[in-house]
Design brief:
It comes from Shewanella electrica. This protein has 17 helices and no strands. The chain is an all-alpha fold. It has one domain.
């Protein structure tokens, strides 16, 4: 535990996670019932994009961000000298932010789910590191098994393409009147609140607890001392197994592929943590990533506002014409905007606007945590 100051490698890792999340979310910011919807005749670019999705993107940055959330909660718990009532107040406000975000802006919100898991995680923060690791692995296994079990309730659907009537109807709804979008987002929020404890919650909770364990083992500051050479090959192997399974027109097999991808994301995320900690990057680009990592809440919500405005209101026709790498191009432009905006903001302010509001609502103007 550092005695003072910020952990720059932690900020940098968080910055990469925040930017990487946009590379995944961009596909559903227009027509939010789906991720990327292929054309009836996929181009070579779309086929290559699908490979990138399986091997480099799917669940990678969400997993990394979940582990970082666990680290952040552990650091706050230590800073508040174990005063969990203060952390609960902070998490209740995050839960409200997430609820408002998913109902009024974008239904793919993660803040609500993170707040729920954070409230459960509080009871495990004081455990010894090895006990945290055991519980993390149990939660991850439970989450994967529940996701696979829930897939047995699925039934096969006709493949959705960009030309299909299902997609065109959804496109018309998501780019239509805001009142109609609001109703759909409310419906999705209710469905997720019901299903979340039965499926993804346990995996997310395990990842957060794994992040706590990793921080206490100095993964984020010194890297891993063992098994680091096996992390990336293990991730790529699981992705290679998941890819052909996920290409089948069978809902059960696709759900199995998603479970494998969730597992594949864990060693790749740990490998990335190790690389960042071991490199100790200090250049200008690293400083910009650190700036992004210092105001993640503000930038995460900015991504949703700009992405939904672009793909639902400003140029909704892009949902009909963009190929896979077209969406990625938009996301990369959004990343460049954040890399420029974050250090500029921090030249004049100590916190992001929503970080400041969150702290003020949770603790008031004058509260100072214990060191």
């Amino acid at each position: 535990m550092p005695s003072s100051g910020r952990i720059h490698t932690l900020d940098m890792t968080r910055g990469i996670a925040v930017l990487g999340i946009l590379l995944l979310n961009i596909f559903a910011m227009g027509v939010s019932y789906y991720d990327y919807v292929p054309f009836s005749t996929p181009s070579w670019g779309d086929k290559l994009g699908q490979l990138c999705y399986y091997f480099l993107l799917r669940d990678r940055f969400i997993t990394l961000f979940a582990m970082l959330f666990g680290v952040g909660l552990y650091l706050q718990w230590h800073s508040f000298a174990g005063q969990t009532h203060l952390l609960k107040r902070r998490l209740y406000w995050l839960l409200l932010f997430g609820l408002l975000h998913r109902i009024f802006v974008w239904p793919g919100d993660i803040l609500f789910n993170y707040a729920i898991c954070g409230l459960i995680l509080l009871r495990y923060l004081s455990q010894p590191p090895q006990q945290q690791l055991v519980m993390a692995l149990r939660f991850i296994a439970m989450g994967i098994l529940l996701c696979i079990a829930s897939s047995l309730l699925l039934y096969d659907l006709e493949p959705v393409t960009r030309e299909s009537s299902d997609f065109l109807d959804s496109y018309a709804a998501w780019t239509g009147a805001y009142s109609d979008r609001l109703q759909m987002q409310l419906d999705l929020a209710i469905a997720d609140a019901v299903l979340f404890p039965l499926t993804y919650m346990w995996l997310l909770l395990g990842l957060m607890l794994l992040g706590c364990y990793g921080f206490r083992q100095q993964w984020f500051t010194q890297g891993l001392s063992r098994y680091r050479h096996w992390l990336l090959p293990a991730s790529l192997l699981m992705s290679a197994i998941a890819y052909p399974i996920g290409q089948q027109d069978n809902a059960h097999l696709q759900a199995l592929a998603e479970a494998l991808l969730s597992l594949a994301a864990i060693p790749m995320s740990i490998w990335l943590i190790h690389c960042i900690a071991h490199s100790q990057a200090q250049g200008r680009f690293a400083q910009r990533l650190q700036a992004v990592g210092k105001i993640p809440l503000s930038l995460y919500l900015l991504q949703s506002l700009l992405g939904t405005w672009l793909l639902r209101d400003l140029v909704p026709q892009l949902n009909l014409t963009l190929h896979w790498f077209g969406y990625i191009g938009i996301a990369l432009l959004g990343c460049l905007l954040q890399l420029w905006l974050a250090p500029l903001w921090l030249k004049f302010f100590r916190q992001g606007p929503l970080e400041w509001l969150w702290r003020r609502l949770a603790f008031g103007a004058n509260y100072q945590p214990h060191n």
